Write the structure tokens for this entry.
Amino acid sequence: MWGRVVEIMTAVWLAASPFVFGLQSDMTLLWADIGIALLICVLSGLSYWRPTRHAHLLILVVSIALILWGRFAIMPPTPLHQNHIVIGLFLLMIAVVPNQASLPPKAWRKVLRCD
Amino acid sequence: MSDMTIPVDDLHRNVPPYHHNPSAWSQRIPICLLAFVAALISMHLSLYQWGFIESSYDPVFGDSSNKVLKSDTAKTMYGILGIHDAALGVLAYLGDAIFGFAGSTRRWQYRPWLVILFGIDVIPLGIVSVVLVGFQAFVVGQWCFLCLVTATISLILVYWAWDEVRVSLAYLRIVWKEHHDKRLLWDAIWGNRNERLDASGEQLLLREVT
């Protein structure tokens, strides 16, 4: 589940970003970043529960939205928006990593026998 | 679904024409480590482009690196991408490491989509690196030492990653040639399992190379 752990760590960075970039007084940006970070954490967390194990794939949608927001909100993008682009691109790669990525998929795993 | 069981050692079998398993950890970990080194180098270059450090490291060409990193070409790319090209390089190399690390030691058959994604990340990155070196030579007229290092790393990564991508594509080719079934090919790409895919994998493992 290392993919999900990295997603949650990235979400923590996103939530901290307005403070890192000194923009915590902009309430819209602050709550948008915290809200998106929370959404990423929820989707990653849901991936640990079997019925919603594919929830992490919804992070792809969040990533694309982050990239578009970062790229087109202000021209040229401010440092905080560049941060959104970078986080979006990074999550785009991490979100496709399967749960238990180092093991074979379940369908193959159950036919492997230890002689 | 087939009731057949597979010995767990099958995860580590060598795949012809190679005398090794291209998905083995011993093959993939060096790729991940080298990609991570390249990501760190690119991070240094992007810190300069962002203005966090005054100069980039260059023991060979001196101030030439700084001129490349702040050239009109770099600024044009920044205008298009919205982030500096070195920052995009960091993400691309991290992508190589992430996609290199994910998957089992038989992912060439169990998760071909992941190997293809890995190939899509590694191979175009190598081409882009060569193109950027060309830009340095013919457009900017200056050289950047660390950019040349990362370009060399990109080409090494292409060389190291190619065997696994080739084996995965060979497996998919066998699936298509044997069955001409789009649904089966789709299942093969996504790592679903059935008897016909077991047989195709076995056919690849047993093929004789002339």
Summary: Chain A touches chain B through 29 residues (CB under 8 Å).
